[in-house]
Design a protein that fits this description.
Number of helices: 24
CATH class of one domain: Alpha Beta
Helix content: 40-55%
Distance between the termini: 50 Å
Mean pLDDT: 91
Length: 651
């Protein structure tokens, strides 16, 4: 990657687009303007000018909202819901499919109230519903849905209370389906339906034998956690027939998989689902709906391939393959075309959210100018100086081997107390000098030795970002999920540094070492050198799915500030909603501390210090004020707070 950047004769905006791949993974929502700023494209007003993220940050600062910040663009969520529904409608009309499409959003993908409320609002015109997997999600759906014709799909294990909530939803007029995951649910559904006098809408989830590729392939196939086997399906049919409720079995649920990168897997899975659908119809079930679950992937890398964090198909191809496959597969059975349901969560919300943060500091692994040899310098250090002078393209491997040997020997001598810290420091600097000179000559080699492939990463800077990986990007740590990461300004300047990112938690795992660069996975990210007294901002894109839901309180860093922005047709924007992130008191209360009691205990400590003569009464009050103010402060790094504390110290 370094060599690719060096070969660019004149860096420009086109170079920036290629390096960070914004056009490839951005799905038409993001671009870089002529001033070098990342800008958001309003998908609903094609004639409006893109809005620079730096302009939005200025608005945040005017409202005294600190970094880090989760930015949501309402227009993108609106467009995502519209694109999904409109594309299915267009394909259905084009291929002559006689059924319809109904989308449902799985609340588990992002349960934040703003997201759920916006989906209910934007999806109302399409009767876009919700998939729920718990009683809490059911309550969120019932209280949020605006259109009574929207569907509710109940997945997961369901107890009596869960089922009663669903039956009440049916009474209200919602098409609420109980998807049977295990046979033990059927008796509860039957008993409560009779007790409340409601005819239930029942679905069955079948275990598919088709196994999809990708990171989440284990959620499909016959070893998947949920669903009924073919034997259990027959038992369910017989049970409902005996209960005289077989006509209530209206839906077949077949979860094809999550984040499916290969369109061929989708076609194969839909064919198998149709076979189950036809077979259950022959058994007497009154099926009219086929729910294919999730699977519509997000192209995090922009490679448009079947690799696990990409996808080799567009939305229209996805819709077309589903509709045509169902139509053609069921043709021989003469069955009416069922209503198609998908539970697209990731693709619906991923693009709408961006994590923004400032860089606090950088640790650079540059070599300082080589100092002259000192008296009584150890022989190993003299040898390393000779290695530096001997470096040529023809002797890179030999010089690298010798420098590594001498450095390791010096480290051993230091461990045994036979060499002092100053000499150890000189040795490390000489070794860094060797690595940097080798790195400069690598592009001249006809073949790069395997040992040299890690040199760029070994010399990469560490940029310290004002965020918590565990709170805001948990999938990056837990499952090596890739997210597009890039500077959001200064992109008219060539990035001259290579870096990895570290967060501000005191955890060695709080770092990012895999990035999307030139549509490839790279272990360093091109960044700009920091400027004095000037903030440097990075953005992490496509974080709307799962990250807010899965984040934890590592080191008691809480939720970030959140802002929702609406883009206007005249290229302006407005702050629709703003939610201040967790205060220190908030996160302490989450882990069962009582902030009020903590204030009292601290007050008693400082009062005791006054009595003991260690501090004055005036100092006591200043300490209490600082303690109380900190409890209400942001859990992340606040530069204004630091400046204020420094001024107090100066006084």
């Amino acid at each position: 990657m370094d060599s690719k950047i060096k070969k660019i004769k004149s860096w420009n905006i086109h170079s920036a687009r290629n390096t960070y791949g914004v056009k490839e993974w951005g799905n038409g929502y993001f671009d870089i303007n002529d001033h070098g700023d990342v800008a958001v494209i309003d998908p609903q007003h094609s004639n409006s000018n893109p809005v620079p993220l730096m302009k939005i940050i200025e608005g945040m600062q005017d409202r005294e909202l600190q970094m880090p910040m989760l930015l949501r663009i309402e227009n993108i969520l609106d467009q995502s819901i519209g694109d999904l529904n409109e594309t299915f409608r267009k394909v259905i009309k084009r291929v002559g499919y006689n059924g319809e499409y109904r989308g449902v959003y799985p609340i588990k993908v992002n349960q934040q109230a703003q997201i759920v409320e916006e989906i209910a609002h934007f999806g109302s015109r399409y009767q876009h519903g919700f998939e729920v997997g718990s009683k809490a999600e059911m309550i969120a759906a019932l209280s949020t849905l605006e259109n009574i014709d929207s569907m509710i799909i109940c997945n997961g294990y369901k107890d009596q209370e869960f089922i009663e909530l669903g039956l009440e939803a049916i009474k209200l007029g919602f098409k609420c389906f109980f998807v049977v995951e295990t046979l033990t649910e059927l008796p509860i559904i039957v008993e409560r339906s009779r007790a409340l006098g409601v005819r239930p809408h029942i679905g069955v989830r079948v275990k598919m034998t088709s196994q999809v590729s990708g990171h989440w392939g284990a959620t499909s196939g016959e070893r998947s956690v949920f669903g009924l086997s073919s034997r259990q399906l027959i038992e369910a049919v017989d049970y409902l027939k005996e209960a005289k409720l077989l006509d209530c079995l209206e839906l077949l649920h077949c979860h094809l998989g999550s984040q499916i990168p290969n369109i061929r897997d989708i076609r194969v899975g839909v064919v198998e689902a149709c076979r189950y659908y036809a077979a259950l119809c022959k058994e007497g079930a009154a099926l009219a709906y086929i729910d294919l679950g999730g699977g519509l992937a997000v192209d995090y890398t922009g490679k448009q391939s079947n690799s696990e964090q990409s996808r080799n198909y567009a939305l229209e191809e996805y819709c077309e393959d589903i509709v045509e496959t169902i139509k053609n597969t069921l043709a021989d059975d003469g069955l009416p075309h069922p209503t198609i349901i998908t539970e697209s969560g990731r693709a619906s919300v991923a693009y709408t959210s961006i994590l923004l943060f400032n860089v606090l500091d950088v640790n650079r692994f540059d070599a300082t100018p080589v100092a002259d040899e000192v008296e009584h310098e150890h022989e190993f250090l003299k040898n390393m100086r000779e290695v530096i002078n001997a470096i040529t393209p023809q002797h890179l491997q030999e010089c690298y081997n010798n420098a590594l040997y001498y450095r390791d020997e010096v480290r051993e001598l230091f461990k045994r107390g036979q060499i002092d810290l100053r000499m150890r420091s000189v040795s490390e600097n000489l070794y860094l000098t060797v690595l940097h000179r080798i790195k400069e000559l690598i592009p001249e080699l006809p073949r790069v030795p395997e040992e040299f492939e890690g040199i760029t990463a070994a010399l990469a800077d560490i940029y310290y970002g004002n965020f918590s990986l565990f709170q805001s990007l948990p999938d990056s740590w837990a499952i090596d999920q890739l997210f597009p990461i890039m500077p959001i300004h200064r992109l008219d300047e060539e990035p001259t540094r290579r870096a990895i990112l570290a967060d501000i938690t005191c955890d060695c795992d709080g770092k990012i070492e895999r990035f999307v660069v030139d549509q490839q996975v790279d272990n360093t990210l091109p960044l700009h050198a920091l400027k004095d007294n000037e903030e440097y901002y990075l953005g992490v894109f496509l974080v709307g799915a799962y990250q807010e839901t899965l984040g934890d309180l590592h080191n008691l860093f809480g939720d970030t500030n959140v802002v929702s922005v609406r883009l206007n047709e005249d290229s302006s924007f407005e702050f629709v909603k703003e939610v201040h992130g967790d205060s220190i008191a908030d996160v302490l209360s989450y882990v069962e501390y009582q902030p009020r009691e903590m204030q009292i205990r601290f007050r008693n400590k400082v009062e005791a210090a006054v009595k003991a003569g260690r501090i004055t009464a005036k100092e006591r009050q200043q300490m209490i004020n600082t303690f109380n103010a900190s409890l209400q402060g942001y859990t992340y790094y606040e530069k204004e707070t630091v400046a204020r504390q420094q001024s107090l110290i100066a006084v």
